[in-house]
Write a structure and sequence with these properties.
- By secondary structure, the chain is an all-alpha fold.
- The protein has three helices and no strands.
- Helix 1 crosses helix 3 and helix 2 runs antiparallel to helix 3.
- The longest helix has 22 residues.
Length: 59
Amino acid sequence: MFLIVGGILAVVIDNADTAKFVIILISIAWAFVFGPWAIVTFLELILGFTLVNKLKKEN
């Protein structure tokens, strides 16, 4: 699920630094709900963001 959210962030937010800040905020908020699963959430968000960002740069 968060892989898709990370991809959507890469499409919606053009500035990479802003997108990374939003990813960190989502992960911190998720830590309050599910604790250590926030680490996995962070990795999924970064992976989705990176994949879509690389595809955008290739085209």
